[in-house]
Design goal:
Elements (H helix, E strand, L loop, with lengths): L7 H16 L3 H9 L12 H8 L6 H9 L3 H10 L7 H10 L3 H10 L7 H9 L4 H15 L7 H9 L8 H14 L4 H15 L4 H14 L1
Helix pairs in contact: 1-4, 3-5, 4-5, 5-7, 7-9, 8-9, 9-11, 10-12, 11-13, 12-13
């Protein structure tokens, strides 16, 4: 178990943030979330845009992120992912957050806001892609696409390795949609990686109709 030494300054900032979060309560957004199956036990319906704006008012802080996460609201957990210090995230915390991320939305936010920026993310993605845990697989798929967007920084050789172990069972709609997006970002990097992805997807579409949809989207990306 990770131990934290509390301090009054961080607690005051936490209380200040939580008061501001409550002001962001949005009944219309909350209603829309329920319509799309996002049934959080604790949610105020604040928009992602407003949460990002709020996070920009504060410095990243490991203890503050812990306090926000343990508050258990959708909004405080998204803020925790925005205000956590990526270099201080340890395996125990990763495991705990994965256990407690109970929606695709939260998995996506934590993936983009935090996990993407961890210094050891290239080591973690292969483990997550080959995991039997849906949340880890989804997270790795999302991050792979985001890494591809960092064209001048991305490690192309590592992406090639990820492509070879992408999940082939994509019956779950959200996972399929995210995989489509990520592969679409990767094929824009260079001709070599685009050819390998197309070769792989072409073979898979003959066995599973779910891959036909991804194939069609890739052809559109390559025509742009």
């Amino acid at each position: 178990m990770e131990f934290f030494i509390d301090d009054k300054k961080t607690e005051a900032i936490f209380q200040e943030i939580f008061k501001k979060v409550q002001v962001l309560r949005n009944g219309e957004t909350h209603h829309e979330m329920k319509k799309y199956g996002l049934n959080y036990q604790k949610s105020l319906g604040a928009t992602i845009v407003n949460l990002r704006e709020l996070a920009n008012e504060y410095s990243k802080d490991h203890l503050l992120a812990h306090k926000l996460w343990t508050k258990e609201f959708r909004e405080t957990r998204i803020l925790a992912s925005l205000l956590e210090e990526p270099e201080k995230v340890k395996e125990e915390q990763i495991n705990r957050w994965f256990d407690e991320m109970n929606s695709n939305e939260l998995i996506e936010q934590v993936s983009m806001n935090l996990f993407l920026n961890m210094p050891n993310i290239y080591e973690l993605i292969p483990k997550w892609l080959q995991s039997e845990n849906y949340r880890r697989v989804l997270c790795a798929v999302i991050i792979s696409g985001r890494l591809a967007m960092k064209k001048d920084e991305v490690k192309i050789d590592e992406l090639f390795k990820f492509i070879e172990i992408i999940p082939t069972n994509i019956d779950e709609f959200y996972l399929r949609n995210q995989l489509k997006r990520s592969l679409g970002k990767m094929v824009r990097l260079n001709k070599e990686i685009a050819n390998r992805i197309c070769e792989l997807v072409h073979g898979l579409r003959a066995k599973d109709e779910n891959w036909q949809e991804i194939w069609d989207d890739l052809q559109y990306e390559l025509e742009l």
